[in-house]
## 1
Amino acid sequence: MGDSVKTFCRNCSALCAMEIEMDEGRMVRARPDGSVSPYGAYLCPKGLAAVDFHSGAEGRLMHSLARQPDGTFAPIANDAALDVIGEKLKALVAEHGPRSVAVYHGTGAYRCVLGGLMERAFVAALGTPNFFSTMTIDQSAKWVTLARLGTMASAKNALRDCDVALLAGGNPLVTHQGAPYAVAESGAPARAFEAARANGCKVILVDPRRTETARFADLLIQPLPGHDAAIFAAIAHILLRDGTYDRAFVEKWCKGLEDLRAAVAPFTPEMAATRADVPVEQIELAAKWLGEARRVTAGSGTGPSFSTHSNANDHMIEVVNALCGGYRREGDRVRNPGTLRTKPVYEMAVSPSRSFEREPKCVSEDTGQLLGEMPSVLLPAEIMADHPDRIRALIVLGGDPLMAVGDPAVAKPAFEHLDLLVSLDCRMNETAKLADHVIATSQPFERHEISVPGDALYPSPFAQYTRPVVEKPEGCMHDWEFFWALGQRMGVPLTFKFWSYGLNFADIPEGLDLSGPQKPDPEELCRFLAAGSAVPFDELLAHPEGVRPDMPEHFVQSAPAEGGKLELMPLDVAGEMAVIRDEQEEDARPYRLISRRILHAINGAYRHSRETKRRYPVNFAYMNPDDMARDGLREGDAVEIASEDGMVRTQVKAEDRLRPGVVSMTHMFGPLVSTDDPEADEGANVGQLCSLTRVLEPVNFMPRFSAIPVTVQPYGKN
């Protein structure tokens, strides 16, 4: 066995430090590196499988492809592909303007720092508002809440600092996704919950399933799916009824308290308990703990954002957090002020932007951007719109939007309608199968990378830079190189900047002018990103295991100027709550299907790894054993899951963690359109049970990916 190389994982925002064992220049296996990492020695199964993934476990593309006139694909040199793509885009922009071009940023691109920032530079230089990403799918309700309620610049209390922590519809022990929305730390999440519990923190979970995270719960509320807004309105009702909300915080930083009081008045704990089919005592106890606590944090995972009334769900969860003053205050310690970008933290409210009410807006619906992005589920409508500014070309970086948006009967014809579809990925996903060009991209261990995505998310200051562990195959291309070369061919000069959410690209003063013909040096791009770092870039170079800087303690400061106010109950949210108050049960179907995450895959990635295929040969329909017994179903039976909008077939599996009346399946699993053979399909796409034209949310036009009314029956039975 040869040497080992220090680097870090790039599957999620935890960016766990790792070592790669080498043998004659070949990667053999990955193992956690706890020598410096603030998480200690930790890697989840996806990190442990990263070498297999890199080595072709999912059919890695070794060269780029071009669609032929007969619909097949043939290899193409990257320069030739760029020439064709550049000419096509130039012609479209000349005839139809920059709005004819759109970019979609997928899960696989979020930890590709240079690629993602070069993509942003390309979009800004081109001047198109059509930027889409996975964030406006599984997180868009949270962004709607940010736009309608506002936020505190000081951010929420950290889990380890709290007396009570409430998490709705999230399972961080599986997802490894934490701040700013969920209540968790991204890396080694179980250790963070253990530390919080050791400090006396009470943990409340609200989830139809007794998740892996629930082993840390002091109170587990298992509601019928689709009633989060009612439950949290009832908690707000109790806090206001009993006067246990944080009066000082609300008076200083919030407005609309009486509007909130009126909106939640009908949502008594008894009413919410009846709707959600949970003991009323649990709702009362959750509100009691929250009201009595000195320091609170409340947040949510994907569940409420995927479910019925998703925008109202997340709004009411954040309202409960605001009523409890669940934010860092002046004088509170800031555990991690950032290393690459250290910034002061102020106690200050940022008023709601309501950015979706302003131009630029979509051409298919009267709605605009959320944090600078258009709603991704409107992509098909934006392509098919009878409008001169409709989308005609789409570049997809590290994602599978055709699969992600659901309702393939609507989405697929739209993607086929594009004049140009380009997929940048390491494998042929469902979007790539429709593409005109598939650019075979490099993989993480072949890239220069710096820990920008985790900079403010680590539990303590830490930064890491990695050079490539191995060289990329000759036929593959770096993501950043694609966008730079495309800008060159189109005559669109790029400026490389340190961008992050909430920043207007044009307003960022520092940038690297990349208009010249010389291809950028990726290490110099990373050096630029570390220009303001608390750890000099040369020190990061000298310490590939990462650096934990010795920084002075940081504390939340008083606001340098008068801040805004959080809008507890704007008129449109009050209207949505009135609809929820008056609604009747919409569908007699006996079950509600919810989405679940699995530890061994992340969205579309790792679905075909050896361990995932062994554990999940199909996309199992998990059911409560009592429900199965009542319906005459046995473990492994073939079943048909049907909603008002579609049907899939799979195998049923018993899980006593689920409450009765619920079926649980994984999003983005199986082929785009399933057949009658789930084993041959290696899954089933629950997106077929969704609709992009019916039961959509306001503002973001999200379909229902969870709490879907369904029937379950064996094959061949009525």
Note: The two ends are 60 Å apart (CA to CA).
## 2
Amino acid sequence: MGLRVSVLGQLTVTDGAGGVLPAGELPRRARQVLAVLAARHDRIQSKDALADAVWGEDLPGNHAGALEHYVSVIRRRLQPQGSPASWFIVTRSGGYLFDTSRAGLDLADLRNLLRKLDSLPPGDPRLPVHEQILELARELPFPEDPYADWAGPVRAEVSVAAVNALLKLAAAALAEDAARSLRLAQEAIELNPFLESSYQAAMAAAVAMGRPDDALRIFERCRQVLDSELGVAPSAELAQIKRAVLASRSVEIPLPAPQPVTAPVPVPVSPVVPTERFLGRVAEIRLMLEPETPPVVHIVGPSGSGKSAFLAELGRHAPGRIGIGAAGPAVGVLRLSWLRNALTGLEAKPEAIEAVERALPGQPLDQAALELIATTFDRPEQVYLAVDDARDLDAASVAELAWLSRHCPALRLVLAYDYPSQITGRPLAGLGTPVVLRLTPLTAEELEPLGDPGLRDLTGGIPALVAVARRPHEVASAVAMQIARRRTEWMPPLAWEVLRVTAVLGDLGATELAALTGQPVTDVLAAVDALVHACLLREGPNGQVGHASTLVRTAVGAQVSAATSLYLRKQLTAAS
């Protein structure tokens, strides 16, 4: 194949002779169009969907025409001698498609390797595949758009693949080359500083090298990261390893040979609820662990409320008994990618995973495949199948979940998405909503263990902001703006205007907001209700409302020019 596009790391395009083509000279929007199509390769993207990813709420007047222009620019710059028969960006069904049969794509190669890894029968060598995965996944994709909605899931996908490969290779190298094992584990820590298994692998390698002090320093780094960023302590398993290192050092006896890091073995859970290590959500976690948990539980909360972290925490309380898959990108050939990931997390039989892999796009799983998958949930204790970003599950996936729920008594479905109203009229509503747990902002009492009394006002108790509140301003501000945008994307434009005005002027009443925005009081009140429900505004005395988080207020206010701020203040004075 001649043309090759690389999106893992900086965008580069090379021709058949290895010559570098001027992809970096493309206009910013053209690079974004190319990146979105690469992220969703081999799937037709309608012009509306593509424009929504590229521009978000700032759509140009004629977005279809703008897309046609940028696609034309990409073709002229990267395939100047090309024709419709050779263009790798193909026009089809009123949209566009990145065709990997016409141009190589490193992201597609990585996904093919992941599928190959999942399909290998037991006993086949896997380390060479992990080496190939790591070679591709050392750099995350789309560095120009780290916070874009369309880029986030792909970056997470690549990060997970790289960390998993690093840990598998670290475990394999431990016995013969502990120094390499340590280097690989440290790379995994750099990619994901919140994953305890990376620290465990690094500690095991340090011990194998006869460096217990280094192992203790690795543990301390883990403790500090988890405490400062997430407000949790290291797991009992990691603390036990630390105690073993201390004991071996104090009595100067050799430690047992360290074992490679492996996936946790499923074990029955004690009826006693584990000690809480998660910040808040105590009642919700306990409800999920009760013996008679309802068969379907919905976990809802707007962007940044900690739904994914809640599912991960549930996994810590139910080791080996929860499989988590993200359904956001699950369309076309990837329709069941969430189920494959969940079954992998539950260490399902290879035949069950293969049944998912064999499923054809647009066709539901047949009875034999469902029965094979159901064996994964044939256990004496409760087992959880969690679907993150579940709102867009298609009708076939919902029907398959319903079948599994009916035929697997131990199975509990956990469905996470933003708002209950999102599933109205969607297939997911067919599973019913027997229990809906809403993840509200963390209270001052729940934040108290962090020892930062100003944290509640700074973050509004939004977990995603709590995690970055004391990080550099640029990081905290970018996350705050992302949360504000995501939480208002379903609201009318007036809601964003209310956020802007209150960011500049502080607490205001509905009458003042109506005068400043030029909108009827009834419309203003509807926008305020939505913003309060989204926990972006809080109600104060005398019916006034203001920002619930000073981080969000600062981030939104920074987008307002000095001239606009002065004009708003003059308007407020005139209206008083």
Note: The radius of gyration is 26 Å.
## 3
Amino acid sequence: MEIPALDVQLKTLPDSPGVYQYFDKNGKILYVGKAKNLKKRVTSYFTKRHDSHRIGVMVKKIHEIRHIVVSSETDALLLENNLIKKLQPRFNVMLKDDKTYPWICIKNERFPRVFPTRRLVKDGSEYYGPFTSFKTVNTLLDLIKGLYKLRTCNYDLAEDKIRENKFKVCLEYHLGNCMGPCEGYQGEAEYNRNIDHIRQIVKGNFKDSLSQFREQMQEHAANMEFEDAQRIKNKIEVLENYQSRSTVVNPKINNVDVFSVISDEGYGYVNFLQLMHGSIIRSHTIEMKKKLDETDEELLELGITEIRQRFNSKSPEIYVPFKVDAGDEVKVTVPKLGDKRKIVELSERNAKYYRQERFKQMKIVDPDRHVNRVMAQMKEDLRLSVEPRHIECFDNSNIQGTNPVAACVVFKNGKPSKKDYRKFNIKTVEGPNDFASMEEVVFRRYKRLLNEGEELPQLIIVDGGKGQLGSGVKALETLGLRGKIAIVGIAKRLEELFYPGDPIPLYLDKRSETLKIIQQLRDEAHRFGITFHRNKRSKSALNTELESIKGIGEKTVVELLKSFRSLKRVKEASEKSLADVVGSAKAKIVYDYYHSESSE
């Protein structure tokens, strides 16, 4: 796929958190960065003046922008760290060393210790994280130590050594921070139950721990120990607001390829995430043109083969959203829960964003291709004989039958054509009768187009259900246009589409572009009609007693009300005050009118 120009790439970036990567014209990586909002952050490189010479040089070399969308700013921070260490970009100065984010380790030993670390040692120990700061780790460990009494010594507490009294309890035991397993004062089963609770805490399952904290807080409060109660309350708030897990990194996910697919009527978009040692080291999405109306399963199988060959991937396992045939040498996993499922969802999110960006780029670079695709899709979805290049939508507007009006909005090639919008005052209908009003405006609209020899639409949409649709059809029959122009009605409640003579409505996919364009048409007709109706209602509201005075016109009424703010003040004003606003002749007419009224 040809790389779009930089300005096109910038215009189509998402407003989501993620990591961005800059590449030069030779495909060599220049820089990796994180962003809370990718569009704002990346655009700032090209719109701001840079004080740093290094950044200025880098911006001149940028040829391509790639990005990975993640769930949160924390995930972006962690992923940025992983990619910088893996790719070693030339213009990244920070994070290139071997320093990494902290983890919480539950040691693989009898009576396990729980402690923070920056190093992952493959000795069977459990590691949870990573965390973005040691402050977070220490807060969590303080909570754990406040709830559970754990040993901190590094003794080898083998059963025979404890039996032979090899160890003596230390100061931690006397301070009440340890139960003394080294002398057999605490059993292994009880200690391991505490470790199981700690596992739940570091996994983010705080339900049991929170209930115990609340019991402690209430107990302290009942004993008038308010400082201790406040301390426990602070811990509860930290736990409730704390997000312990990252979907980006999990040490148990190692040497795995993740694939997902998003498709539309013409193309499939396959995303690939490569994970090594629990970290994402590569993200790539390809666009595949459908040739034989392939299913998502077929597209994903083709994409997996192509991507693994392109990147020479030898990963023995792949994660996918549904079962596919990837050959006998690869284990295929369809995750349902947990971090494995989250990483598949992350891949799907990136495929979705890539598809949206391609649509945006297409609109900018090749608008005709986008319009042709949408029109072809609308023709298929709405079961039309021709593409609906010219669509008109009608909507009635009135309040309990007062000031009835109607609006007609026009879309050409899927976009509003505002110069062709028309508004109608209802002339032949009295009272609130939507059906008769619809028949009147449809008849008037197309009778005029026929008389003037203007172009007729390929599709008419009426806002309403079967009744309004029937009225529109009746007007077309009177004009001899029934069958020559397609007409449908859209009901507001469930977005049902009704066709003449068909009692069963059509339901479109809520995400389809066809439904979105029809909704836009309906909403635009409603907006245009309501605006016209409000203006008409406001104008009629100005028909005050002043306008009934002979010799006083609308302009004079507006001037008087603008100056005096109410009819009462106009009545009470002196002739001189009135003359200052509208002149002596009209002031005398108004003054005499009200004074003669009052004298009578």
Note: Residues 103-244 form one domain.
